[in-house]
Specification:
Blueprint (H helix, E strand, L loop, with lengths): L2 H10 L8 E6 L10 E6 L4 E6 L5 E4 L5 E9 L2 E5 L3 E3 L6 E7 L19 E4 L2 E4 L12 H6 L4 E4 L4 E4 L5 E5 L2 E2 L4 H10 L5 E7 L13 E7 L6 E12 L3 E12 L3 E26 L4 E27 L4 E26 L3 E29 L2 E26 L15 E22 L4 E24 L2 E3 L5 E22 L2 E18 L5 E19 L4 E12 L3 H4 L3 E5 L2 E4 L7 E12 L2 E11 L2 E8 L6 E7 L2 E16 L2 E16 L6 E18 L3 E10 L2 E3 L2 E3 L2 E11 L6 E7 L6 E6 L10 E7 L1 H4 L2 E11 L22
Parallel strand pairs: 1-8, 13-16, 32-36
Antiparallel strand pairs: 1-4, 2-3, 2-5, 5-6, 5-7, 9-10, 10-15, 11-12, 13-14, 15-16, 17-18, 17-47, 18-19, 19-20, 19-46, 20-21, 21-22, 22-23, 23-24, 24-25, 25-26, 25-27, 27-28, 28-29, 29-30, 30-33, 31-32, 33-34, 34-37, 35-36, 37-38, 38-39, 39-40, 40-43, 41-42, 42-45, 43-44, 44-47, 45-46
Length: 818
């Protein structure tokens, strides 16, 4: 859509007014006061119209008839202000109240009992806001569990992936900064993070230009609570739980906050022992096994995860306009586990092979992140932010496989091929260093126009050494097909600018563009040959329009363009052992995904609806099946879909039955289409996919509260995979202890024990080696619901808090794979 056409459309919606009031609200520190309530009253104090101040503190009250009025301005934490009575005569079109300094309320906020809060779901032009503080199931949950209960979000525990509105290509942010971790590692990290300090989750399907263009499906922004009160404060949270095995989490944080200095820190330890079992039944045609094969197998996995997260930082306010700060974050994840396999291979017509193995190993992941920043308010209407970051990542992954693959006579199968050896040893060592620098600038160009602009540069250098050694004739032996040594260098430069125009109190328009240039070089140190040598420069425009029709209705329209670059692990030709016939590997020929989105939104009171049209070129589908050139190994790797089209309807419907019972329902689904050409025969697939969420909250006597929530994801497709639909039901009860002694909460996850993944291959197109298979993965909760008991308490003069600014280098984490 042309910008001029959109502006014309916006202008057509504007109403002619009889009269108009306007002004600007600021604090005693000369900072804009956003979202204050401005009410126009009659001489009898009846409310004629109410608006809220913009992010710049400006407000306008339009379409006012002649008469005698007063103006009332109110906001929590500030003294309510009333104007003197004033008259608007016929033909008088404007009255300017100028700049009003609002005075802080004398009573402290903790003395106020708030009986009404925000809706659990709120709609904005860029996406949906989930106010997770309103859910009692948040305490004692991990961040991943809270995400799983959010509308449109699907967590696939089978392959450790996150989908938004049915699409891959999601990036996760923490306080507005991208977490550049591998998706598998990110899911593990979020599962070990306590959700106690989360304020909101922003599901940004159409982010504006100030955000990185990465993330074709959108951005999930996790916003932590911030401690704005002066004084010393802290919190402690202890969780113990059990499903089929034990779980535990201990989290603490502190903050020392004065007018000039804020010192903060936190530490979390989590332990989780889990069990998973998998059943596989398949048929395939593998020449190296003798032809047609029928396979039945059972896989039992036990895994133990111990996570350590520590953060420390300081913010110094040098003067009224300048703040500097530094922080350091350390994360260590220790994973260990073992998978026991018992499978039968029936090579038709009558040759039976038996495969038994135990695959056990460890993975150690260390992340170290340092950042420094400077914020400078050049004037009341102009600000600059500069930050620099350095990241170091290291991963060591080792495993050993002991197996037997024999026929009925005890003879080893495979003709001495390496992957059929009774002993395998695999390693994957990765070291990555990232440097990031960025500058962000904002300036209020006038009462109604705001400029945002910025520059960013990132440089990454990584080394990855991986491979599989097989014990052949008493000697550990490797080959080029099962090992590599990859060196990678990447540089990304970006510049963005956007203009935000507040036409009046009811209509706004934001037009922006972001240009990103990336250079990626990967080569094999063994041969010196380039694996990837790619340069890509792309412009990403964005347009957002919002029109408030009346106090109850709002229209929103937006267009964005986005990208999903293949992760390092997606590109690298690493190998990981699956069984004697298959390996996990990367795909150096992957192309980035380019996405165009158009979104139309409508809000009625607290209900919200949106219709999203998206087109993905070269969408990435992970865990697809292809054959090796020699047709002797099955590759499990990511592949590009030619295109993918989605039409998605999203709705959130909160209901308040009475003062003790409220409920929320959400739905995200629609028509999904894609085309693939990497299979033996090109194919197209169309289907209707959706996910639905609900929650019921109850306030009970004696400081008790309870909540029941659940979600259901219907049948979905990922490339050639079909995944059956399933749902989960959760419940929790909470008790606030007397005399500020904290709270106790008991939660039960997957009460009906239904979280199992039933996956089909070869149902609608021919797979590699003509595979047709059924895979059933039973997570731990299908064996027994996971029960957790949490005790939490806050201390000190303020609520618990976290650092005020996350670092820009987090933008580089999501593309690092182990």
């Amino acid at each position: 859509m042309k910008v001029s056409g959109l502006i014309l459309f916006a202008c057509c919606l504007f109403h002619q007014v009889n009269g108009q009031l306007r002004g600007k609200l600021v604090t005693t520190d000369s900072l804009p006061l956003s979202f204050a309530n401005i009410s126009l009253l009659t001489k009898d104090s009846a409310v004629v119209k109410t608006v809220v101040s913009s992010v710049t503190g400006d407000y306008e009250v339009d379409n006012i008839s002649a008469g005698l009025y007063r103006l009332r301005i109110s906001m929590i934490g500030y003294q309510t202000w009333y104007s003197e009575p004033f008259a608007l005569a016929a033909g008088q079109n404007d009255k300017n109240f100028g700049i009003l300094v609002m005075t802080a309320a004398k009573k402290q906020l903790e003395e106020v009992v708030v009986k009404a809060g925000k809706s659990l779901f709120q709609q904005k032009p860029e996406g949906t806001i989930v106010n997770v503080e309103n859910s009692i199931l948040t305490k004692g949950s991990s961040v991943l569990q809270v995400l799983e209960r959010s509308p449109g979000v699907v967590i696939n525990h089978r392959d450790n992936s996150i989908l938004l509105n049915g699409k891959n290509g999601v990036v996760v942010m923490l306080n507005g900064k991208l977490m550049r971790l591998p998706m598998e590692q990110l899911v593990s990290l979020l599962d070990g993070m306590s959700a106690d300090d989360i304020a909101t989750i922003e599901l940004l399907t159409t982010p504006p230009a100030k955000y990185d263009a990465e993330g074709s499906a959108g951005i999930i922004n996790i916003v932590l609570k911030k401690n704005k009160k002066q004084g010393d404060s802290g919190s402690l949270s202890l969780t113990g739980g059990y499903g089929k095995a034990e779980k535990a989490t201990a989290a603490m944080n502190f903050s020392h906050n004065t007018k000039q200095v804020n010192v903060y820190g936190s530490y979390t330890f989590s332990h989780d022992k889990t069990y998973t079992d998998m059943y596989v039944a398949s048929t395939q045609n593998m020449p190296f096994l003798g032809g047609a094969v029928s396979v039945t197998g059972w896989f039992d996995t036990k895994a133990i995860s111990n996570n350590h997260d520590a953060t420390a930082g300081i913010d110094l306010k040098l003067n009224a306009k300048t703040t500097v700060g530094a922080s350091i974050t350390y994360n260590r994840i220790n994973l260990s586990g073992a998978t026991v396999t018992d499978a039968g291979y029936n090579v038709l017509p009558d040759s039976l092979l038996r495969f038994n193995s135990i695959n056990q190993g460890t993975s150690r992941w260390n992340n170290l992140l340092n950042t420094v920043y400077l914020e400078k308010a050049i004037s009341n209407d102009e600000k600059i932010n500069v930050s620099a970051d350095w990241l170091y990542f290291n991963n060591n992954n080792r495993y050993e496989v002991q197996s037997s693959f024999i026929n009925r006579h005890g003879v080893q199968a495979g003709d001495n091929q390496s992957l059929f050896s009774p002993a395998q040893m695999g390693t994957a060592n990765t070291g990555i260093q990232v440097g990031v620098a960025r500058v962000d600038y904002t300036k209020q160009l006038g009462k109604k126009v705001k400029l945002e602009a910025g520059l960013k540069g990132a440089y990454t250098k990584s080394t990855s050494l991986s491979g599989i050694l097989s014990l052949l004739n008493g000697v550990w032996t490797g080959n080029d097909e099962t090992s590599n040594h990859i060196l990678m260098q990447e540089g990304i430069g970006a510049a963005y600018a956007s203009l935000n125009t507040q036409f009046n109190a009811s209509a706004s328009l934001a037009i922006g563009a972001r240009y990103e240039y990336s250079y990626t070089n990967m080569n094999n140190s063994k041969t010196g040959a380039d694996i990837v040598n790619r340069k890509l420069g792309t412009l990403f425009p964005s347009v957002f329009f919002s029109k408030k029709i009346n106090d109850n209705e709002t229209l929103q329209l937006s267009y964005t363009k986005r990208i999903s670059r293949p992760s390092y692990n997606d590109l690298a030709s690493y190998v990981g052992y699956s069984d004697p016939t298959a390996v996990y590997t990367g795909n150096p020929f992957l192309q980035p995904t380019i996405t165009n989105n158009i979104k139309l939104g409508y809000n009625y009171k607290t209900w919200s609806f949106s219709l999203l049209f998206s087109r993905d070129d070269n969408a990435i589908a992970r865990y697809q099946l292809t054959e090796s050139p020699a047709r002797d190994i099955l590759y499990i790797s990511p592949q590009n879909l030619t295109w993918q089209n989605n039409i998605t309807l999203q709705a959130t419907l909160p209901f308040k039955i009475n003062n003790w019972w409220s409920m929320n329902y959400s739905f995200a689904g629609g028509i999904r289409q894609y085309r693939a050409t990497y299979t033996k025969t090109a194919f197209e697939k169309s289907y209707f996919g959706y996910s639905a969420n609900f929650s019921q909250a109850f306030k009970l006597p004696a400081n008790f509260s309870a909540e029941i929530s659940g979600w259901y994801n219907n049948t979905a497709y990922n490339g050639t995979q079909k995944v059956n639909g399933f749902g989960v039901l959760n419940a929790g009860i909470k008790k606030e202890l007397k005399k500020n002694a904290g709270s106790l909460q008991l939660s039960v996850s997957d009460i009906l024990r239904d979280e199992r993944y039933n996956v089909h291959y070869g149902t609608f197109t021919e797979e590699a080696f003509s595979i047709k298979s059924y895979v059933s993965v039973n997570t731990e909760s299908t064996m027994f619901p996971i029960i957790k008991l949490t005790y939490s308490r806050s201390f000190g003069s303020g609520a618990k808090g976290r650092g005020r600014l996350m670092n820009g280098a987090q933008d580089e984490k999501d593309r690092i794979q182990h």
